[in-house]
Amino acid sequence: MAAHNPVRAEVEINLDNLRHNVALLVRRAAGADVMAVVKADGYGHGAVPVARAALAAGATWLGSCSLAEALALRAAGVEAPVLAWLDTAGTDLAAGVAAGVDIGVSSVEQLARVRGGRVHLKVDTGLGRAGCPPPLWAELCAAAAASDNEVHSIWSHLARADEPGHPATDEQARRFAAAHEVALAAGLRPRRHLANSAATLSRPDLHFDMVRVGIAMYGLNPLPQPEDLRPVMAFRSSVALTKRVPAGESVSYGHTWTAPVDTTLALVPVGYADGVPRLLSNRFDVLLAGKRRPVRGRVCMDQVVVDCGDDDVPVGAEVVLFGDAARGEPTATEWADTLGTIDYEVVTGMHRPRVSRRYA
């Protein structure tokens, strides 16, 4: 059946599913505060609507990456506590302090740029990215204790929590405990946060005072075992044209697929400019007219071609490129597995000029 209003390229964001996921994570956090991470425009889902839905479902904090992201939340009227943790050396942090944004700090030099604000001191426990190296941690804690800033928390980030039982997580927990002792010795009384989505679901011993949930909030499971998470994003288009082609006809650039029998092809007006990776050429299905059907030939900038066999598929019919497996739809995780990447990259990649966003 043709869609009522055929779309070219649209992501639908199901905020009911997001609220379900956040409520589940709040229950699993068992009394710890829950920071909903809405960086990168809410992982491509829209930071402000996601933030409001997450807070309504029980999250108590928000997490951004840049100060600009945090200030955009404030400009939209979002008043919940928000932490910003990564900016360039030239970023003026005074606007963040004035707006009540908490600032992540990994060095004495960064601390000196925050005046009269609330800070979260980050220690590198083994991820090797941001965070103060352990040999410099005591110096940072002492400087923070002597500054005019309020130290809210110490924190770190886990490298392999999505691999349950991996010893690296226990080693990071040990280093984090040692860093906490150093902070206490410096006269600080900080709260602690370490757990990401995977550790929120699998390591209650690491929940401490707050957990930070990202990918699980968006319904994508970071763990190998099943969880009751519901996908929040679906990517849709519609059939723009159909044609019958004879056996022996080839499809798209390079003629990488040739029809072995007479078949019907459906043209769908989305391509790599709209978030469909070219590396998926000849390697993925869509849901069209109640069936999963293969995409044939190379993904182009603006279009893909779907093999419909002998079925009569009308122009305007809805095409689901990824969505909810429970409805028989392909998923963002399937794309990621085929590409050799992670589903985070798939959904954040949907923030594109020609892709509209609709909230349901």
How do the helices and strands line up, and which of them pair or pack?
Blueprint (H helix, E strand, L loop, with lengths): L9 E4 L1 H15 L3 E5 L1 H5 L3 H10 L4 E4 L2 H9 L6 E3 L9 H5 L3 E4 L2 H5 L5 E5 L11 H13 L3 E6 L11 H19 L5 E3 L3 H6 L7 E4 L19 E6 L2 E5 L4 E2 L5 E2 L4 E6 L16 E4 L2 E6 L7 E4 L10 E5 L9 H8 L3 H6 L7 E4 L1
Parallel strand pairs: 1-19, 2-3, 2-9, 3-4, 4-5, 5-6, 6-7, 7-8
Antiparallel strand pairs: 1-10, 10-18, 11-14, 12-13, 14-17, 15-16, 15-18, 16-17
Family: Belongs to the alanine racemase family.
Catalytic activity: L-alanine = D-alanine
Cofactor: pyridoxal 5'-phosphate
Report the principal-axis shape: elongated
Indicate the CATH class of the largest domain. Alpha Beta
Number of strands: 19
Query: Largest sheet, order of strands side by side?
Result: 11-14-17-16-15-18-10-1-19
> What is the assigned CATH homologous superfamily of the largest domain?
Alanine racemase
Structural class: alpha/beta
Share in helix: 25-40%
Query: Which blocks of ≥5 consecutive residues have pLDDT under 50?
Result: none
Distance from N terminus to C terminus (CA atoms, Å) equals 21 Å
Organism: Actinokineospora bangkokensis
EC number: 5.1.1.1
InterPro entries: Ala_racemase (IPR000821), Ala_racemase/Decarboxylase_C (IPR009006), Ala_racemase_C (IPR011079), Ala_racemase_N (IPR001608), Ala_racemase_pyridoxalP-BS (IPR020622), PLP-binding_barrel (IPR029066)
Cofactor: pyridoxal 5'-phosphate
